[in-house]
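Field: sequence (string)
Field: structure_tokens (string)

Example rows 1 and 2, in order.
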Amino acid sequence: MRAKSPERVVIVGGGVTGWMTASYLKAALGDDVALTLVAPGETAAPPDETSLGDLAQFFDVLQRAEEDWMPACDATYKLAVRFQDFSRPRHHFYLPFEQMPQADGFPLTEWWLRMQPSGRFDRDCFVAAWLCDAQRSPRHTPGPTPGQDAARPPYGYHLDAQALTRYLTAYAVERGVHHLTDEVHDVRLDARGWIDHVMTARHGAVDGDLFIDCTGTRGLLLRRALKVPFVSYQDTLPGDSMVTLRVDADMKAHGIPPYTAITAQAAGWTYSIPLLTRIATGYVYAQEYCTPQEAERTLREAAGPEAAGAPATHTTLSFGRSLHAWKHNCVAVGAAAGRVQPLQATAISYVHHALQQLAPLVAPVAQAVRSGGPHTDLQEHYNTALAQELDAARDLSTLHYLGAARQDTQFWRDAQTCPLPDALAQAIERWRVRPPGTEHQPGPKGLPQHAHTSILLGTGALALPPSTALSPLDDRAARQEFAALKQRAQTLVKTLPTQYDYFSQISA
């Protein structure tokens, strides 16, 4: 009996998104699919990346441990996002990956609004805030105490996007992904309007059963060839430009903070991503309020003297999503499907989430394409999941502007009057009665359920009331929980190494 030939999947576009897609699908589906990736060779370095706390699952599918991939990608740990100056000068707060503790069935933040043990909700409610302030690693260095690392706080990663691309390219090609180093210059449709093949500059026609668009905001297949409309987020997310620097730095002198730092500026915000050997930094701003030259000057001043010789990269930004991420036999992953402002700096995690949705659907959809049968229900599942995640991420990003207490520049005054998405406007009305919870507003996948509460408490402009549901309850359990959390945090600060010491010791 003749063996069934594998489904043919063509990935168009390289970079982190393309090679994450190729690696994940090859690891998850093996020889059930024949994967071809069409992309030019390595281009200009992309901005460096950070992830949410669930990216470890991506490497679990690849069967790659941290010690295999982290050194190759200059990677460090990330416990939280630190937001600076959104409320007032020199004020900061953390959005940790750690889940919210509870007392008597209520989130600790609700008790905090009633009791406020200190002026810092993040240190009262989360261990991670203490570790971030002390620049601690979430992991112990290897030692003789068995199980000492078992209860570590959840974390994500900071990583060099260009190095990760090289790592995943080698991984995928070694396992049989066919890489055509080429440019796609045309997309040919069949009589139904489906993609029949793509035309490349040097290899001619490349055909397949399923085509995956990883071409970023160009949307070469989905938007340009299949004419899927684009739904813009620009009216609610101010900022249309970015300048970035890759700063070589003495990380022993700097230390390696276990967080991504986001700092409000006059016309937007800067970010800082600490890697093992350098710091990646950028400024997302609105050109209506700031010229590119002013933005670069602001970024260099924020980065300090070490940035003096670093070349700057200027790019324009557009935020939004495709109306449908999957049409006919074409599915988009990454920015081709949609892009939200990187206030959580988590685009790489959204690629992973899309692949988790996509992988189980690839084989049945490709079979349906071959046979001419329907697969609309599978498409709808993917489209709904991605649209909900991207819209939820947009709403959360909008809160950073709406909730910011600062009024010192026209940018921030105007940002707080941007039109709100309907779902967010309705949620805010509910939050005036009770702080946000899982029953009020779905959060982006991978972010903790307390994300909305933490942003609102930290930015400070929208006051949250103590919940009336707590009024008849004794606060003894909450007091015990606050005290236990503080004790655990102080113990971990004493026993965990700094990130710099951790990576120095394990590499020695």
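Row 2 begins here:
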Amino acid sequence: MEEATEQAVEAAAILGFDPSDPAFRADPYPHYRALAAGGRLQRTDIGLWVATSYELCDRVLRDPRFGHQPKNGGLWRDIAERHRSFLTLDPPDHTRLRGLVSKAFTPRLVERLRPRIEALVDELLDAASGETDLVSALAYPLPVIVISEMLGVPACDRALFKGWSTCLARGLDPDFLLPGEEIRRRDDAREEFGAYFRELAACRRARPRDDLLSALVRVSDGGDVLSEDELVATCVLLLVAGHETTVNLIGNGALALLRSPEQLAAFRARPCDVPAAVEEVLRYDPPVQLTTRAALDDVELDGSLIERGRLVLLLTGAANRDPAAFRDPDRLDLRRYADPRARGREAPQHLTFGHGIHFCLGAPLARLEGQIALRKLFERDVALTGAPLAYRENLVLRGLRALPVTL
């Protein structure tokens, strides 16, 4: 108990809030609002800069003077060079790797998945009836199956990913929030995950198939190819990021709609507006709550000097509810992105997938899965059971441990 209290005090000193507080896990947005009341850019006791406003978060995400240094400002976590995906790199390395991966991960490839995703959602929902956990019945298996099939991972190996992915998702949080045992499990999972994909990639080099892994193995640009370390880091990124965020999108989105009967009725009445509705739930309770950037040089931001190497915590979950950017931001409003002209003010794009050069490569896939899953789910009778809800301990990724419903 004493150790947990000390950790909470340390977290509050570094972040400006305590992410272990049960009230924060249940609903972080009032805590963000209280933090923002002290200024849209603040420096915490340890020297971390925290941005809560939409305008500042958006500006930093687009500003090439901010990026990802190997030590990440000295406050967050260090990643061995061979494990670093393009998500954590700066140009020109980021530009080169993202360009290569984009050649294999195309919008056309994603759109081809629509019939398969439709069939999977029907299959998963047909198998669930009565009182069920929507996370384990739909939100988790759907994106895992989709990204596994895309990469060409054998169905018999999917069970291996649950433990690895859970450890790596928790490992996205800063090391100062993680017990030593969790850091060890994260590092072990990264090594085991990497070894698995090295072996699978070797099989694809010898016998290519019509899957994303084979495409990544052979992708090239003027003779440039992915090295083995780059290929493995990309595969781990695609599998973890390709399903963890979508699990939370489906779970958080379903809960938000079930808690808003008027909005749920509108969702069911206007299936043509489902894409816009998914954008609103992505804004309202995003699966990704924050990201970080390090100043690559001395930068003036909102009247403050951010010294080279200093880390800026971008609370995009707070920015998505910034009243300076969004009208009535704490209200779930499915019309927000459906017909902005009728509302008199166009809502800005949410920051859930980021902005700038690091905008989420998998956003089209997450959107497609979220749209199909929520549309098909609410074609059926669904209700909350009234059982208490518990969220996972993750700070960066926000999602439910389970969502008990009756189907």
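free_text_note (row 2): Residues 16 and 113 are 42 Å apart (CA to CA).
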